[in-house]
Known about the structure:
globular, 256 residues, eight-stranded parallel barrel, alpha/beta, TIM Barrel
Amino acid sequence: MRQIQLLAHRGGMGRAPENTLASFKQALEDGADGYEFDVCLTEDKQPVLIHIDFNRTDIREATGCKTPLNQLKWKDVQQLRVDNSDEPVAHLDDALRFAREHQMPCFIEPKSDIPELLPIIVERVRHFEVVHLTSILTFYSRKHLLIAAKRLEPKLQTSAILINPMANFLKAAATIDANRIIMGWTRINHFQLYNAFTHAVTRQVEKLRANGIFVEAGFIRTAKDVDWAVSAHKAGGVDGLWVDDVPYIRHCLQAI
């Protein structure tokens, strides 16, 4: 079987507190091929790693703090802890410094389309000299962010999450010059259900890969997910899996 990349969602949130330096260290120790994290801005425009709903500022679920993020300065956020842990909220610089030190690919999901965020992200990526390791990631419905990211820094890679199995995958990727397409789902794998009747997903994945575009899938949580995603006959054979628990999914891969 070809090498399948295992990519740690929010640093591998099944193994360590999400979006933290501890999660990145765990992902490295677990042998992940890259790690993803969410970035949003404080009141004083500091990029911090907190998972929030897109264009929202409520951080109670992630940190327990009732004050909206856009009313907190970085000095305030430094006092917070990621929910159910002793881990501090990380700064974007922490994540990029880690990528540089370990030459480990990172995937950045901007959690807002306010004008300041992407330029700040790109400036910090350049500062740490990790453009070659960085991909900007978001849902295809927010493709303007991916287009803007490449406009700011053409050498950046971009990853688009598709949630519609009936979409034209190759056309979507070509429209925004995406380097990676991710078939995204949460609980029910609707790509698998649609493909069972049409086999269209298999053909679309094959076309993407034939055109040099990486294809990934997730969230991968079970052995059945793994079996479907990596099978050339069932899903066209993806190149990477987005996972919360790298060792478990690697075990599933080895069992196939």
